Amino acid sequence: MKTVLWIIGGVLLAGGLAVVWLGWVLSGAPSLMPAPAKTPAPEGFVASDYPPITELSAPEGVRLIDLSAFGEYFEHYFLPDERVTYFRVFAGDEMSTTVFVDAQGRLMGQIKLLPNDFPMGPHFVDPDGSHTVTATEVGPYVPHVLLDGEATQARLQELHAQATRYRRFSYTDMPRDRPEFDAKLATHVFEIDGVWHKIVEDGATSLDWKGAPFEQLDVQYDISRSLDPADATRFMDGAYTLRLTHFDQQTYLGKKGAPMGSTTGVGRGAQWRGDGFYTLVAGDAELRFSLVGDTEFLSNPSRTYLTMSGKPDLDMVVLRHQVYGRPTAAYVVARD
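User: That's the sequence. What structure does it adopt?
Assistant: Structure tokens below.
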């Protein structure tokens, strides 16, 4: 009898272990290694010197533009010939807002256009007119020259051949209170010899877009305690750098593979969860900030939710943070 009980007990134990093992495998086989030793704070570190990134103010020697003052940050691009960076923001109205910053990180101005406006190199165009941006100023709004006569396909093709830049606005691009929307008309705009023209037709003709590429700033993704050699000199020969000063390591999550049935097939690298404290050097000054609920990746420090971007010859950088793809903070930082 005892032998039978021992056998039954062994079978149950083996079955239980098999279930545990199967659950471990299905969950991605998380590492069973203990947490590594925590990294102590550097000498002289004071957490209160690092305000939340959403509450930054410029220390002496730094100029700061908080883009949240203009609206909710959406994206930014660079005009290489003008050396101007522009930022698209949502300002809570029905217009499109664009903010312009020069090569030294100084605010040049902002424009508001119809929500279907479109950047075409230094020209910011909507169906009715455009602004032109130079290295030093944001030009006034200039209405398009309305072309008379019938908008035949042959005429549109002739205008398209003459144009340096061209854009077609469908009726669906228009606000619903516009006559073009009700009549389902398309608006064609052409830049010919430096002058923007427009002509409206029934929407039957579609021509190839003529514009300019959307230039991006260079981005530093690896933000850790030590700087990659490329990041140490990436912006203005090292005038601007960003690094992790200290990480308050609170919860350790070991490495694991992708769980069974995962739609992404992506596992999890070893990481600490806690609060990160960062230092952005701008010339001889330092801008310090913190991220509460941050993550320190041990195997791959690159991240996409905290970035610094710029160009080797721009005396400014863009500091940006986002959570789950939604921006929480965006600043232009320049030495003063």
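The helical segments are 2-26, 153-162, 179-183, 229-232.
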